[in-house]
Every structure is written in structure tokens, then in C-alpha cells.
Predict the structure.
Amino acid sequence: MAPRVKTRDRIVAESLELFNAQGERNVTTNHIAAHLGMSPGNLYYHFRNKQAIIAELFAQYEAQVDQFLRRPEGRALTVADKTFYLEALLAAMWHYRFLHRDLEHLLEADPELAARYRTFAQRCMVQAQGIYQGFVEAGILLMEAAQVEALTLNSWIIMTSWVRFLCTTFGSHGDLSQDMLRRGIYQVLALEGGYASAEARPAVEALQQKLFVPLDGRFDGAAS
């Protein structure tokens, strides 16, 4: 017999599902309570408002990213590590896609969350820069320090704005797919293409082909 899920955990999990499917702005605490078949008062016993649920989900997202966004200890990086990082980023973006869809609104609505996010973002960029430096030291990327810093910043900008780009440019909202997010991961990898060493280029190009997802004429449709 499976263990019974705690009410607090059910609230968090079902809220994530609703936020991802409908957008956080379109979901109220009353919607969440009705979806769970509980009274609003029961929900408020566990979370004082919707911002508290969002903060809990951000903490989960933060912990997931912190777990994988780090250099391995005691060995050099490989192209296989690049695959691991990109796939892990894709999984995190997909699972918590509502955070990426309307990030500015979420942070404006909760100053405490905004402060936590700034600290998280700075930590991620430091870790990412260290990872890129590891690829340089392993001879996979050929870059100077200034190029490593620029690549880190550009990658972060793509990763944090890709979902919003899809929504604002193509009108995608409730129909976001993992393939559409995968194209964002490919865009990050494409930034590195010119820096790949001759030895690493075949493996990097194979990874690019694996991650590439066509936009199915979306640019043509946007221009017509």
C-alpha cells in the first residue's frame, strides 16, 4: 500500500500542475482548493496565500538546479557532461515552466522572492562560469576569460527568457512542449559552436543535432 501523501505536499504538487497548465495569474487559491476538493480554510491552514505556495515551488526549483549545476570533483569535464547539464536544465525548465513564463510578474509581486531569486541567479552564473572554465581546461572549448564571462551571461539570458520569448513571439502559452523548450537548450549550445576545439567538434556537433528542433516555419508565419 502506497504511503498517504501529506496535505501540504498535495497542495504544492497540484498547484504546480495548475500553474503550468493555466498560468499562475489565472489560478487563485480558491481554484487550487476546489481542484483538491478541500475548503479554502483548510488550504490557508497550510499556506497563508498563493505567494507562499509559489515560494515553496521556487525553493524546490532552486534545490534541483543547485544539485546539478556544479563542476564534478576530482576529474576533467567531458562532452558527456555537457549533455548532462543541458538535459538537466531542460528537465528543470519543463517541470517548473510557469516560473519562466511570467518571472518578472512573480518577482514584482513578492519582494522576498525577488531577493532570493537575485541571490540564486548570481550563484548560478558563478557556477556556470566555473563549468565553462572547466570545459576550457579540458580542451573542449577554446576561449579567453572575457569570452567565458560573455558566454555565461548570454547563456543565462537565453535560459531565463526562452519561455517568455515563445509566448510573446509565437503566442504559445498553454501549448508549450518539451520540444519547444529543447530548442532553447539548442540555442545555448549554438552559442558555443565557434569555440569548440577540433578534437571535440564532432561530439559537440552530434549533440547539436540531437537537441535541434525545427520551429516549423514559425518565423515565416510571424513575418506574413
Q: What stands out?
A: DSSP finds twelve helices and no strands in the chain. Residues 79 and 167 are 31 Å apart (CA to CA).
